[in-house]
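Rather than argue in generalities, we have chosen a single entry, letters for residues, whole numbers for local backbone shapes, without further comment.
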Amino acid sequence: MHSPEPEAVNTRAWTTYGNHHLQRGTKVPEVEKISWGFWPTGPGAEVLGDLTGLRVLDLASGLGKHAAHLVREHGATVDAVEASASQHARAIARYGDLPGLTLIHADAVEYLHRAEPYDVIYSIHGFGYINPHRLLPAVRQGLKAGGLLAFSVLHTNSHGRGPSSSVAPRPEILPLADGEDQTVEMWLLTPKLWEDLCVDNGLLLDGIDELDAPEEDNPVSVRLYRAHSRTSSSSRPRTTRPPEPNTALGVGAILHGADGLLLGRHRRGTLELPGGTVEPGESLEHAVVRELVEETGCRAREEDVVLLGLLMDQVGPVVRTTVAAVVTRWDGIPATQPNESVGDWRWCHLDRIPDGLFIPSAQVLTAWRPELAIDHPVARFYPLAGNADLSATTRP
């Protein structure tokens, strides 16, 4: 079983934690209800609904006590997967003979890749220990269409430090009773970032519960996220949060030549054309030229930008307008630029465009070439360039 760094750090820390308690003979505590936070307050098993006849997975299940509770008190049949060998051993010693509960020692992501899809996947404090870029695609694969995902993660730690707005792990302390504290690496993210990551992976957020410590002087806070899987799509779905009013107008630039079509990869994994927000006071052509050099390093003239038309769809109550454009001539070799969210620029053949296009980019491409086999939500297209033949774009 293999877990990449820094997840391997977490597995080792929890294995040390489990071995410590095995040596101490610490008993596995029973739970009277499902507690998504660290306190016996807030919602319980009702978050998961009626589990009768459903396939249920407890992800990063630890001691298996929550899974055992669902089996005993709610008639559920639960698989519980845990990466730490010692925590798994403690669970086996306590619940190994409980009918309806299957305890599995495995890396959660690797297990999800080979498991049959589940109706319900839940995790209590486990999501924060696994890279969400690795975990959420596997969770989406491991959920049936319309399946439920519920997970709780730390939001504010005991020192009052809140979540991060970037998808990167940070050190946190795992206390060890009468032993040396363990350092773990955790992904503690803002609710907006968790929502965006869920939506990017085909999981639609149903709600977020704020679970705060009952003591007024205790800053620890947890968030409970509830989502469901949508049907698969080859393009990235929108976030449920509408853009700010000043970001409702954007451009998408097509660069196509002998090498193919230029696409870059967003830091969250989607494929995109060069482009972005039109800034106040600039022309559409200038926005294309500016975004192109900012994101790729390539330079073009405004007179070499042909505006194809306007694409209009909707994000919540806001009308989103994307201007499709073709750059007919440019200079330079596309390359990842510092501090830009899109990079790793590659040339793709039109008959082999990968899945995972950002929705506005997919819409721009089919406005340009309607024959392209790209699936995306419908947008209204208002052409500006007439019937101009723009298939032979060039690079000097």
Remarks:
- The chain has eight helices and 20 strands.
- The radius of gyration is 24 Å.
- The first helix runs from residue 7 to 24.
- The CA atoms of residues 189 and 301 lie 40 Å apart.
